[in-house]
Protein backbone atom coordinates (compact mmCIF):
# COMPACT_ATOMS: atom_id res chain seq x y z
CA UNK A 1 0.00 0.00 0.00
CA UNK A 2 1.40 3.36 -0.95
CA UNK A 3 1.32 6.53 1.13
CA UNK A 4 -1.59 8.11 -0.74
CA UNK A 5 -3.78 5.05 -0.19
CA UNK A 6 -2.96 5.02 3.51
CA UNK A 7 -3.76 8.72 3.79
CA UNK A 8 -7.06 8.25 1.94
CA UNK A 9 -8.09 5.40 4.26
CA UNK A 10 -7.14 7.41 7.35
CA UNK A 11 -8.91 10.53 6.14
CA UNK A 12 -12.02 8.54 5.24
CA UNK A 13 -12.16 6.80 8.61
CA UNK A 14 -11.46 9.95 10.61
CA UNK A 15 -13.82 12.08 8.56
CA UNK A 16 -16.66 9.59 8.96
CA UNK A 17 -16.25 9.36 12.74
CA UNK A 18 -16.09 13.15 13.13
CA UNK A 19 -18.96 13.89 10.76
CA UNK A 20 -21.42 11.21 11.97
CA UNK A 21 -22.70 13.21 14.99
CA UNK A 22 -22.87 16.37 12.88
CA UNK A 23 -24.93 14.65 10.21
CA UNK A 24 -27.24 13.05 12.81
CA UNK A 25 -27.93 16.48 14.30
CA UNK A 26 -28.43 18.05 10.88
CA UNK A 27 -31.18 15.59 9.96
CA UNK A 28 -32.91 16.01 13.32
CA UNK A 29 -31.54 13.36 15.68
CA UNK A 30 -30.44 15.75 18.45
CA UNK A 31 -29.26 15.31 22.03
CA UNK A 32 -32.66 16.43 23.33
CA UNK A 33 -34.77 14.27 21.02
CA UNK A 34 -36.08 14.35 17.48
CA UNK A 35 -36.43 17.90 16.15
CA UNK A 36 -39.95 18.86 15.07
CA UNK A 37 -40.41 19.22 11.32
CA UNK A 38 -37.09 17.52 10.51
CA UNK A 39 -36.27 14.59 8.28
CA UNK A 40 -35.91 12.52 11.47
CA UNK A 41 -39.45 13.48 12.47
CA UNK A 42 -40.83 12.22 9.18
CA UNK A 43 -38.84 9.00 9.57
CA UNK A 44 -40.27 8.56 13.06
CA UNK A 45 -43.80 9.25 11.83
CA UNK A 46 -43.49 6.70 9.02
CA UNK A 47 -42.04 4.10 11.41
CA UNK A 48 -44.84 4.69 13.92
CA UNK A 49 -47.54 4.36 11.25
CA UNK A 50 -45.94 1.16 9.93
CA UNK A 51 -45.77 -0.33 13.44
CA UNK A 52 -49.27 0.53 14.57
CA UNK A 53 -48.50 3.69 16.51
CA UNK A 54 -45.08 3.15 18.08
CA UNK A 55 -41.48 2.99 16.98
CA UNK A 56 -40.11 -0.52 17.37
CA UNK A 57 -37.11 -0.98 19.65
CA UNK A 58 -34.01 -1.73 17.60
CA UNK A 59 -35.42 -0.15 14.45
CA UNK A 60 -33.33 2.20 12.33
CA UNK A 61 -35.12 5.22 13.81
CA UNK A 62 -34.58 3.98 17.38
CA UNK A 63 -30.89 3.28 16.80
CA UNK A 64 -30.29 6.66 15.14
CA UNK A 65 -32.16 8.46 17.93
CA UNK A 66 -30.03 6.67 20.52
CA UNK A 67 -26.86 7.69 18.67
CA UNK A 68 -28.14 11.27 18.38
CA UNK A 69 -28.88 11.51 22.10
CA UNK A 70 -25.98 9.59 23.63
CA UNK A 71 -23.37 9.65 20.88
CA UNK A 72 -21.91 6.68 19.08
CA UNK A 73 -20.96 3.59 21.09
CA UNK A 74 -17.53 2.07 20.69
CA UNK A 75 -18.87 -0.55 18.29
CA UNK A 76 -20.76 2.05 16.26
CA UNK A 77 -17.65 4.25 16.11
CA UNK A 78 -15.64 1.29 14.84
CA UNK A 79 -18.29 0.48 12.23
CA UNK A 80 -18.53 4.08 11.01
CA UNK A 81 -14.73 4.34 10.88
CA UNK A 82 -14.47 1.09 8.94
CA UNK A 83 -17.01 2.22 6.36
CA UNK A 84 -15.28 5.59 6.07
CA UNK A 85 -11.93 3.88 5.60
CA UNK A 86 -13.39 1.61 2.92
CA UNK A 87 -14.82 4.65 1.10
CA UNK A 88 -11.42 6.34 1.34
CA UNK A 89 -9.77 3.28 -0.17
CA UNK A 90 -12.34 3.04 -2.95
CA UNK A 91 -11.77 6.70 -3.75
CA UNK A 92 -8.13 5.90 -4.56
CA UNK A 93 -9.29 3.42 -7.21
CA UNK A 94 -11.23 6.03 -9.15
UniProtKB/TrEMBL annotation:
One Pfam family in the UniProt entry: Ifi-6-16
Annotated transmembrane regions: 41-64, 71-93
Keywords tagged on the record: Membrane, Transmembrane, Transmembrane helix
Localization annotation: Membrane
GO biological process, one term: intrinsic apoptotic signaling pathway
InterPro entries: IFI6/IFI27-like (IPR009311), IFI6/IFI27-like_sf (IPR038213)
Domain of life the protein comes from: Eukaryota
Membrane topology: Multi-pass membrane protein
CC annotations in GO: mitochondrial membrane
Family named by the database record: Belongs to the IFI6/IFI27 family.
Descriptive protein name: Interferon alpha-inducible protein 27-like protein 2A
